[in-house]
């Protein structure tokens, strides 16, 4: 019988974080967080009520309008971001534990993820120091005008459960660098890493490095979260999550023309051209498709291959995925852990069943594996998939790869683009420059050639229903500024 390895029960969070300090909730309920490995409650967290959210927005509005934070220089705010990174780094062991307990990520990968996320704070700080907020331009009449970039105001940052600290860095770090005040809304399924961030903000607020009111961190259900999106005190909404939720947020924000940036779903295609080196393909494609047990919007979940190379690619992929160690996430040897929650496992299993019903074949996996507990789904390869099937068109968010056969290169590009999504993708070929040209034809925000690269210090975002706007790099920082033109006399 398998024995569950686990840390001691995590300290419950019985308060909400408003305006830079932990405080009692105005009526919010508490809810258990279930450990996806043990299937037992790991901690209990207090949800923010609708009134709590209104208090958070009011504090952010007052702090922004007062200008104590927005009036600081970019360099001063960058120094604070570096200090946030330093203090998060001092708690990386705790954050690593939360990555395992919240998302099911094996401990070694969880540590890498937390460290990468902390590095994003420093990357934003460096971008901020080089960012110019004033520019002079000549007018057609010979006069001079000044172009000013001013902080957008109060930002509602709404993050998902599958990468909580990383999306805090993606959204809150550039918003703070720009001089905005922020209300961060964490997922009820992953509130722990954001609560550590709140602890750090509380320290810096008490020390005077961040003015009171600038940052709130709330955990709330969907109904109360909509109060944040519709609050007239919020100037900009930045959201990462499902396309369905993004569509709802955009609709609500449209009623009052609030600024919106969205990072949504993906159904990314990996195009394996006939001249691709199979060893090079297998060096990145298996984890490109099954990273974080497939719980990643950028996962390469459609593998496109010609009939000529179909059999050898499927055989190699089957061997590679079948060799990925899956099990106890506290075992450092494991690469794949459980899915984050029971309903996510049920969702993934439903997609696998639908593929069978539509005539596809499961050539690897499809079950729950050997563990006696934990929300596991084995790495799964589905062959004989048509691009109009549900498993090819809808985001599964599990370790499931669909193999689709194309006739020629043009057909491969057409299949890759035959999706409502356009977030990521890959091209494998012996000719790097030809791969680049194929990548240009794929309607997607990121495309890798002969790899599955991830560098979130560069611009990241999607085409079509994968979102609006960009995160990462100078482009991600620029999202949190308004542009003002001031005309001066001749």
UniProtKB/TrEMBL annotation:
The active site is at residue 263. It holds the Pfam family Aldedh. InterPro entries: Ald_DH/histidinol_DH (IPR016161), Ald_DH_C (IPR016163), Ald_DH_CS_GLU (IPR029510), Ald_DH_N (IPR016162), Aldehyde_DH_dom (IPR015590). Residues 22-486 form the Aldehyde dehydrogenase domain. One of its GO terms (molecular function) is oxidoreductase activity, acting on the aldehyde or oxo group of donors, NAD or NADP as acceptor. Keywords: Oxidoreductase. PANTHER family: ALDEHYDE DEHYDROGENASE (PTHR42804), ALDEHYDE DEHYDROGENASE-RELATED (PTHR42804:SF1). Belongs to the aldehyde dehydrogenase family. This is Aldehyde dehydrogenase. It comes from Amycolatopsis acidicola.
């Amino acid at each position: 019988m398998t024995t569950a390895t686990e840390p001691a029960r995590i300290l419950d969070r019985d308060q909400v974080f408003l305006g830079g300090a932990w405080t009692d909730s105005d009526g919010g309920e508490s809810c258990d967080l279930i450990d996806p490995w043990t299937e037992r409650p790991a901690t209990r967290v207090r949800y923010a009520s609708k009134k709590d959210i209104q208090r958070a927005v009011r504090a952010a509005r007052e702090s922004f309008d007062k200008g104590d934070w927005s009036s600081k220089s970019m360099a001063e705010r960058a120094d604070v971001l570096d200090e946030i990174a330093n203090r998060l780094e001092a708690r990386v062991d705790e954050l690593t534990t939360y990555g395992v307990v919240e998302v099911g990520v094996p401990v070694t990968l969880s540590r890498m993820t937390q460290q990468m996320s902390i590095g994003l704070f420093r990357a934003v700080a460096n971008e901020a120091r080089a960012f110019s907020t004033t520019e002079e331009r000549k007018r057609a009449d010979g006069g001079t005008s000044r172009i000013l970039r001013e902080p957008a105001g109060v930002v509602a940052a709404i993050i998902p459960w599958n990468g909580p600290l990383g999306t805090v860095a993606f959204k809150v770090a550039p918003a703070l660098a720009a001089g905005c005040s922020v209300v961060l809304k964490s997922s009820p399924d992953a509130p722990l890493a954001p609560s550590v961030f709140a602890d750090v903000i509380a320290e810096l607020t008490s020390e005077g490095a961040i003015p009171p009111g600038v940052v709130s961190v709330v955990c709330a259900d969907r109904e109360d979260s909509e109060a944040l999106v519709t609050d007239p005190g919020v100037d900009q909404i930045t959201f990462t999550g499902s396309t369905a939720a993004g569509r709802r947020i955009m609709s609500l924000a449209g009623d009052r023309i609030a600024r919106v940036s969205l990072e949504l779903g993906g159904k990314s295609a990996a195009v394996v051209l006939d001249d691709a080196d199979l060893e090079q393909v297998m060096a990145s494609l298996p984890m490109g498709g099954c990273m974080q047990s497939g719980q990643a919007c950028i996962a390469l979940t459609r593998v496109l291959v010609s009939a000529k190379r179909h059999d050898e690619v499927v055989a190699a992929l089957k061997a590679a995925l079948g060799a990925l160690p899956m099990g106890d996430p506290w075992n450092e040897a494991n690469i794949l852990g459980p899915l984050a929650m029971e309903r996510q496992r049920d969702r993934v299993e439903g997609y696998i069943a639908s593929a069978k019903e539509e005539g596809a074949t499961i050539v690897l996996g499809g079950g729950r594996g050997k563990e006696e507990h934990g929300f596991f789904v084995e790495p799964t390869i589905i062959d004989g998939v048509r691009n109009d099937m549900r498993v090819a068109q809808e985001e599964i968010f599990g370790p499931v790869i669909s193999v689709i056969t194309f006739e020629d290169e043009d057909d491969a590009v057409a299949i890759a683009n035959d999706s409502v999504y356009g977030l990521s993708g890959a091209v494998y070929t012996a000719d790097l420059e030809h791969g680049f040209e194929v990548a240009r034809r794929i309607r997607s925000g990121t495309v890798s050639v002969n790899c599955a690269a991830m560098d979130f210090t560069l611009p990241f975002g999607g085409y079509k229903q994968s979102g609006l706007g960009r995160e990462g790099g100078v482009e991600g920082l620029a999202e949190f500024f308004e542009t003002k033109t001031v005309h001066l006399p001749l």
